[in-house]
Amino acid sequence: MAAVRRPAAAAFVGGAPCLTRLSPTAAGSFACRTRPAAAPRKAAAVTCTPTPTMVIEPMALVELATNPAWLVKVGDAVGTLPFPPAVVKYGHPGLMAFMILGMGLPGGVIGWLGRTNEDKKAGVKQKQLHENIMLAFWLLAFAGATGGVLSTVMQGKDILTSPHAKTAGVVLALLTANAVVAYSGFTIGGGATPEGRKQGRTLHAYLGAGTGIALLVHAGLGVANLANFS
User: Fold this and answer.
1) Which residues are 30's β-sheet partners?
2) What is the pTM of this model?
3) 59 falls in which pLDDT band (50, 70, 90)?
4) What pLDDT is stored for residue 56 in this prediction?
5) Cβ partners under 8 Å of residue 141, min gap 6
6) What domains are defined for the chain?
7) Is 69 helix (H, G, I), strand (E, B) or coil?
8) What is the phi/psi pair of residue 14, to 5°?
9) How far is residue 215 from each of residues 94, 120, 171, measured CA to CA in Å?
């Protein structure tokens, strides 16, 4: 009959079971040699990236559509001056009507006449007159825009929601751009060569025509605004 092998009993060292192999010591006894514990695994780093979100508050849009507080204060301060109501309401339209009919349109026509005049000497004089008129018009346009803004605020209207005010910005930008072209010696758009200056003058002429159209649109919107102002 075959012998049955029994599992070896666990060795005990110091009253505690030794689950690792025993190694002999110098004194002939056995010591329990333990294996170093494995270093704990580090958890994988998790990086959280916040997702930016944009929240638009309805009241913020309302504030953007209203006049700035500092502008209201300026309007209130100017309103304390003894201006007749007719001046507050019709002063800006009257000035702009004079500027458009008495300076802007005639100045533009004189500029085109100087450009197309076959008499070069007379054409030079027309161009000089055009330059003087339009320089004064450009300066008065900014002054008129300032008066228009104050007039609108003093009457309790919002300037940022007005198409008339927006077209005023377009007109002022076009006037300034055309002035830069002219005072660069017409080198913008073609260079400093004679042919380049000719191209610069062409750019100046057509940019001026576009400014005139924008000015008429601006004036039409201004007339429509008068019906909304009490």
Assistant:
1) 24
2) 0.66
3) very low
4) 45
5) 99, 171, 172, 175
6) 85-226 (1.20.120.1770)
7) helix
8) 65, 30
9) 15, 30, 6
